[in-house]
Amino acid sequence: MTTQAKLVFSLSLTLGTTITISSNHWVMAWAGLEINTLAILPLIAKSHHPRAIEAATKYFLTQATASALLLFSAMMNAWYTGQWDITQLTHPAACLILTSAIAMKLGLAPFHFWFPEVLQGSPLTTALLLSTIMKFPPITLLLMTSPSLNPTLLTYMAILSTALGGWMGLNQTQIRKILAFSSISHLGWMAIIVCYSPKLTLLNFYLYSLITATVFLALNTIKTSKLSTLMTTWTKTPALSTMLLLTLLSLAGLPPFTGFLPKWLIIQELTKQSMAVAATTISLLSLLSLFFYLRLAYCATITLPPHTTNHMKQWHTNSPTRSAIAILTTTSIMLLPISPLIPTTI
Prior knowledge:
This protein is mostly helical. The chain folds into two domains: about 1-130; about 150-305 and about 320-345, no CATH class. The chain has helices at about 5-20, 25-45, 50-80, 90-105, 115-120, 125-130, 135-145, 150-165, 175-195, 200-220, 225-230, 240-250, 260-270, 275-300, 310-315, 320-335. The N and C termini lie far apart (about 45 Å). Keywords: Electron transport, Membrane, Mitochondrion, Mitochondrion inner membrane, NAD, Respiratory chain, Translocase, Transmembrane, Transmembrane helix, Transport, Ubiquinone.
C-alpha cells in the first residue's frame, strides 16, 4: 500500500470519527460510522492474505448490520416522537435496538464473536486502531444516549462480557486474540457504569486506549504476535521487555499501576448506587483475565535463546519507535498519583 493511500485512509478515519462525535443528528452520526468502516477495510486487508480478507469481510458484515440497526432505531424513534436528535431517544423499542447496535459495533457480549477473529487477521497497527480509535465513536453514542438506555440490560451485558473476555482468553496462544478478549473484558467495565457516571466510562476508555497503544506499539517494535516468539525477546531487548511487563501489569489492573484507577473508581460508584453485588461479581470475574495478563508478563521476561535466524531478524528495532514507547509506557504507568484529585472532578 502506497503512502498516499495510507494518508487518504487515515484522513478518512479522522473525518468519520469527527463527524460522529460532533453530530447531534442520527443521520450524520450514521454517516460518520460508515466512513470509518469503509476507511478501515483496506487497512485490514492490505496484506492480501486469505486470513486478512476473511477478517475484512467479517468486519464489513458486522459493522454494516450494526449500522443498519442503528439507523432503524433512529427511524423508529423519529416515527413515534418526531425527533432526530441523538439525545431525544425515548421510545423503548428504539432504545433496545440501539443498545444491540452499539454492542455489536463495540464487540460487547453477546455480540463479541467477530472481534477476536478480525483482530487475529489484521496487522498489529490496524489491530491497534480497531481496539482504540474505532471504538471511540460508538462509545460517544453510548455516552450521549446513556440516560435513555436500560441499566439492567447493560449490567447483564457487562457482566457477561467480563466473564467471557476472561474465560475465552485463558487458552489462547496468539497475542492479538488475547488482547481482543482483554478489550471485551474492559468493555464490560465501561458498560456497567455508563448509566450512572458517563465520565467514569470516558476515563476508563482513555486510560485503556493509552495502555493498549503502548502494548501494541511494543509488540510491533519487536515483531511478535505469538507467545512462543515473545519468550525470546528478553535476551535482546531487556529494557523494552521490562516496559512491556509493567504495561501489561497496568492493563491487568493491579495496584499501584494506572489500570487499577478506573476499576477502583467504578467499584466505588457502583457501591454508592446500591449495586454492591454487581460490583463484587464483576471484580471476581475480572480475576479470570488476570491469568493471561500474568502469563503474557511472564513470557515477556523469561530468557530463552533464539532458535532460528528469523528471530534474530525480528529483533532489529529503531530507536525513535522505542523512545515513543518509553514515553507512552511512563505515561501509562505513572498516572496513578493523580488519582486523589479525580473523584473531585467527576
